[in-house]
Amino acid sequence: MPRVMYAIIVNPSSGRGKGVQLFRQVEQELCIANIAYRTLLSDTKETSVLFVEKLMKTENLKGIVVIGGDGTAGSIVGVASRWNLPVAILPAGSGNDTARAFNLTHDPTKFVKQLIEAHTRKIDLLNVDGQKGITIAAAGVDAEIGEKANHSFYKSLLNKFGLGGLAYPIAAIHTLLVFTPFEMTLTIDGESLMAWPCTWLIAAGNTSSYGGGLQVCPQALPNDQIMNITIAHSASRLSLLFRLFPRLLQGNAIVSPSISYLTAKAMTIRADRSVLLILDGEPIHSSTFTIQLNPEALTLIQTIE
Ligand SMILES: Nc1ncnc2c1ncn2[C@@H]1O[C@H](COP(=O)(O)OP(=O)(O)OP(=O)(O)O)[C@@H](O)[C@H]1O
User: Fold this and answer.
1) Fewer CB atoms < 10 Å away: N or C end of the chain?
2) Which letter, b or e, does each residue of 194-203 get, where b requires 16 or more Cβ atoms within 10 Å of its Cβ?
């Protein structure tokens, strides 16, 4: 019988290299506690999934430890849920919205102690056309802003001066000035709703924030078996840029004909063109998305602050 062990996935690029540093500390604690593990320094979702699948066949896996940001955590929830493997997340990203939602500890010593205690809770997951995620599936202008902020030349430049936090507002202004709204029809829990002719963004939240604490779905809870949907539509560019968007991301519930809040267990978005959707930081391009809420689909090891 193979020895019981953990699969550890470390993303060396999360949080500008924080992951490896945290892993060294976790490694020391695991050695002291005589806990067996195998480690992958991952560079893509695919290698992480293959790593877990392979260990499932050859070892007696007790769970998956992720040391990385929201993208790394999101990349293994599909395989973890498929094999019913508990997951522990040590946040090492730049945004860490998953950690924020579950009040996860950032301290490696506390983390390993609670990993060993192995108290777990079941959490809901989002499922976008078969791809699972923990936090928010967001399509439209906010997805474009996130992509622009992450891949812009000014992010790396600003990071050098410790001003990386400015990348998002710069990308927001830039994108809001050029983005063309799309026409969208929605089917919510099997029922077709009216068309939104001028949609700026639609965000379906299992948890409340993305982008490092931007509260776009303030009511979302990861154990209530519904997703909370925020739609910004039919606003003028100037009103969205200066009035609605900043308030929306602060988590203020906005009473405005241009902002709609819905809840659903499943929805289909049909856009009049291909749009960008981001799920846990990962981009998906399509004109149709079916998003479901998979209740209690993941076992999370509680490693709280
Ligand atoms: N297993 C993995 N899953 C997803 N992305 C990975 C993985 N390993 C490496 N990467 C790459 O690392 C990048 C950053 O990963 P991640 O999202 O975890 O960190 P971050 O962007 O610093 O933090 P956050 O998402 O919390 O803001 C991803 O965009 C991807 O290119």
Assistant:
1) N
2) eebeebbbbb
State which ligand 1 atom lies nearest to the alpha carbon of 282. Answer: 29
What is the pLDDT, as a whole number, of residue 43? 84
Strand 182-188 to 191-205 pairing: antiparallel
Q: Is the CB of 93 under 6 A from ligand 1?
A: yes
Centroid of chain to Cα 13: 16
209 lines ligand 1 (CB under 6 A): no
Strand partners, 271: 184
The span from the CA of 179 to the CA of 106, in Å, is 37
12 lines ligand 1 (CB under 6 A): no
Q: Token pair 């776009």 is at which residue? A: 216
Domains and CATH numbers, the chain: 4-118 (3.40.50.10330), 133-295 (2.60.200.40)
Q: What is the pLDDT of residue 14?
A: 85
11 in ligand 1 pocket by Cβ < 6 Å? yes
| Residues forming beta bridges with residue 286, ordered by sequence position | 275
Is residue 55 pLDDT above 90, yes or no?
Answer: yes
pLDDT, position 1: 65
| Amino acid identity, position 185 | T
pLDDT digit string, tens, across residues 109-168: 999 999 999 999 999 999 999 999 999 999 999 999 989 888 888 877 877 777 777 888
Q: What is the spatial distance between Cα 84 and Cα 283, in angstroms, rounded to a whole number?
A: 26
